[in-house]
């Protein structure tokens, strides 16, 4: 996102992180929904198609996770670092709500 626009809306560099986090949460939700749909599918053909879509959703989740780790937005193996990222993000959201 353009730095000027980020500064105008008060988000600075957080915009990419927020978008990536929302995308990751959506991917997780999609994975859950595909697994439920597979158990409810009426035909083997439909289950096959849903499994293919599930595999694509899992790959998307992995891609987003890798991106977030490389940018320092996500620390799945270091709870202290992740806690600091989450606290910073929540403080930014609180500050935006107060403006």
UniProtKB/TrEMBL annotation:
<keyword id="KW-0167">Capsid protein</keyword>
<keyword id="KW-0946">Virion</keyword>
<protein>
    <submittedName>
        <fullName>Spore coat protein</fullName>
    </submittedName>
</protein>
<dbReference type="Pfam" id="PF07875">
    <property type="entry name" value="Coat_F"/>
</dbReference>
<dbReference type="InterPro" id="IPR012851">
    <property type="entry name" value="Spore_coat_CotF-like"/>
</dbReference>
<keyword id="KW-0749">Sporulation</keyword>
<dbReference type="InterPro" id="IPR012347">
    <property type="entry name" value="Ferritin-like"/>
</dbReference>
<comment type="similarity">
    <text>Belongs to the CotF family.</text>
</comment>
């Amino acid at each position: 996102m353009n730095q000027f626009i980020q500064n105008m809306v008060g988000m600075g560099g957080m915009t990419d992180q927020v978008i990536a986090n929302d995308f990751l949460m959506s991917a997780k939700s999609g994975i859950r929904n595909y697994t439920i749909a597979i158990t409810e599918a009426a035909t083997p053909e439909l289950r096959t198609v849903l499994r293919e879509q599930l595999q694509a959703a899992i790959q998307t989740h992995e891609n987003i996770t890798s991106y977030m780790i490389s940018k320092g937005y996500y620390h799945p193996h270091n709870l202290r670092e992740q806690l600091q990222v989450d606290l910073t993000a929540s403080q930014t959201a609180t500050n935006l709500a107060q403006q």
